[in-house]
C-alpha cells in the first residue's frame, strides 16, 4: 500500500506489484483507484460530479481515510496490526475432511431408530426369574446333604453308598452253562422242518407229560341228583323251544312292520317329489313379501254393455305385465309405499271464524 502523500505515479506502479489480503468480501486494495460508480470520481452527468474529488487534496484525503479504515479493521478483528501478529494466530490447519469422516463414522455406528423404539424404556427393572434359581427338590437334597455330613463326622456311610461299595468289592459271578440250561452249546436243537413221521419226538413235551400223572375220573352222582339234573335239562330244552317259537312269531311281525315302514317311506318320498315339482313352478320369495295372485278382471252383470262396440276393457296391461315379471322371478314382489305423517296435526281456531260464531 502506498504511503500517505505519495505521488500518483508511485501509487500506480505499486498497485501492480501489491499483494493485498482483505478481511472481508467488501474490503478493497487502498492502492487501487475506486470506480466511478462507487464514489471515486462521481457521476459525469452532473456538474457537481466533475468538481468532487478531483484535486490532490481529495486524493490525499481518500488515501488517509482508507489507511485509517484498514487500521481500525485490523484492530477490531485481530487486536492489533497484522505485521505484529505471529503466524499461528493468522493461519490454521484445515481439518474439515477429518471431522467429516469422524461424523460419517459416528453416523454409521449410531443404532437404527427402529432398534431404539424396540428397546425397553421403562424405569422399573424387569422381575427376576425365580424358577431359574430354583432346583427341583432343593430342600430334600439339602436335608440329605446335611445328613450325609453328620454321618461322615461320626464315621458312618449311608446305606446306598455302603451297598455300592459292597457291590464293587464283590462283583456277581457269571452263571456256568449247565445241562438243563438254555445256554449249553452241546445241547440238541429241535428241528421244526424235520418230518414228524420219522419217529422224532419233542423231549421237552415228553418230559412235561411224564412228570404229571393222569387225573382219576370223577365219581358218578347219586340217583336223586341224577333225576334232578335230568329234569332241569328237560325244562331248559322246553324253554329254549318256546323261545324259538316266540322268536319265529316275532320275525313274522317284524317283517310285516318293515313292509309297512317301507310303504310309508315310499309314500313320503312321492309326496316330497310332488311338492318339489310344484314349488319349482311356483314363484320364489325374493324379498320380504310373498307373491300374491292378482284378482280376475271381470265385469258384473250390471256393468255389461248391450253391444260389443260399447264394451269397455277391464284391467290394465301395465299391471298385468308387472305381475307377470313378479311371477317369473324377474323382480321381487312390491307394494305401494304407505304415507306416514312424521308429526301430529295441530288444529288451530282462526280469529275470523271465532268472531263469526
Automatic annotation (TrEMBL):
The keyword Coiled coil applies. It comes from the Eukaryota. GO terms for molecular function: 5S rRNA binding. Residues 1-55, 96-136, 159-226 are annotated as: Disordered. Keywords: Coiled coil, Nucleus, Ribosome biogenesis. Residues 43-53 have a biased composition (Basic residues). GO terms for biological process: ribosomal large subunit assembly; rRNA processing. GO terms for cellular component: nucleolus; nucleoplasm. It is found in: Nucleus, Nucleolus; Nucleus, Nucleoplasm. Residues 1-27 have a biased composition (Low complexity). Residues 226-280 form a coiled coil. Residues 213-224 have a biased composition (Pro residues). Belongs to the NOP53 family. This is Ribosome biogenesis protein NOP53.
Amino acid at each position: 500500500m502506498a504511503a500517505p502523500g505519495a505521488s500518483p505515479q508511485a501509487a500506480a506502479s505499486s498497485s501492480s506489484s501489491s499483494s493485498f489480503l482483505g478481511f472481508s468480501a467488501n474490503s478493497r486494495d487502498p492502492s487501487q483507484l475506486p470506480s466511478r460508480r462507487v464514489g471515486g470520481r462521481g457521476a459525469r452527468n452532473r456538474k457537481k460530479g466533475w468538481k468532487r474529488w478531483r484535486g490532490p487534496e481529495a486524493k490525499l484525503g481518500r488515501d488517509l481515510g482508507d489507511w485509517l479504515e484498514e487500521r481500525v479493521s485490523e484492530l477490531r478483528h485481530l487486536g492489533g496490526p497484522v505485521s505484529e501478529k505471529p503466524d499461528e494466530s493468522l493461519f490454521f490447519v484445515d481439518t474439515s475432511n477429518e471431522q467429516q469422516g469422524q461424523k460419517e463414522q459416528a453416523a454409521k455406528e449410531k443404532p437404527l431408530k427402529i432398534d431404539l423404539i424396540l428397546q425397553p424404556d421403562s424405569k422399573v427393572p424387569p422381575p427376576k426369574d425365580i424358577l431359574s434359581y430354583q432346583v427341583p427338590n432343593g430342600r430334600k437334597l439339602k436335608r440329605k446333604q446335611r445328613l450325609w455330613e453328620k454321618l461322615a463326622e461320626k464315621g458312618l456311610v449311608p446305606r446306598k453308598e455302603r451297598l455300592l461299595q459292597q457291590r464293587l468289592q464283590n462283583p456277581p459271578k457269571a452263571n456256568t452253562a449247565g445241562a438243563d440250561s438254555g445256554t449249553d452249546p452241546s445241547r440238541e436243537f429241535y428241528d421244526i422242518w424235520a418230518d414228524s413221521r420219522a419217529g422224532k419226538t419233542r423231549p421237552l413235551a415228553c418230559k412235561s407229560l411224564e412228570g404229571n400223572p393222569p387225573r382219576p375220573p370223577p365219581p358218578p352222582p347219586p340217583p336223586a341228583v341224577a333225576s334232578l339234573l335230568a329234569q332241569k335239562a328237560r325244562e331248559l330244552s322246553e324253554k329254549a323251544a318256546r323261545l324259538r317259537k316266540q322268536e319265529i312269531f316275532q320275525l313274522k311281525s317284524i317283517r310285516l312292520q318293515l313292509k309297512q315302514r317301507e310303504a310309508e317311506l315310499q309314500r313320503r318320498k312321492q309326496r316330497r317329489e310332488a311338492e318339489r315339482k310344484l314349488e319349482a313352478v311356483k314363484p320364489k320369495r325374493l324379498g320380504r313379501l310373498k307373491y300374491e295372485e292378482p284378482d280376475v278382471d271381470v265385469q258384473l252383470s250390471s256393468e255389461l254393455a248391450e253391444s260389443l262396440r260399447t264394451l269397455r276393457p277391464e284391467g290394465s296391461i301395465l299391471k298385468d305385465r308387472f305381475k307377470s315379471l313378479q311371477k317369473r322371478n324377474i323382480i321381487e314382489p312390491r307394494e305401494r309405499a304407505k304415507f306416514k305423517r312424521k308429526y301430529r296435526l295441530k288444529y288451530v281456531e282462526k280469529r275470523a271464524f271465532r268472531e263469526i260464531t
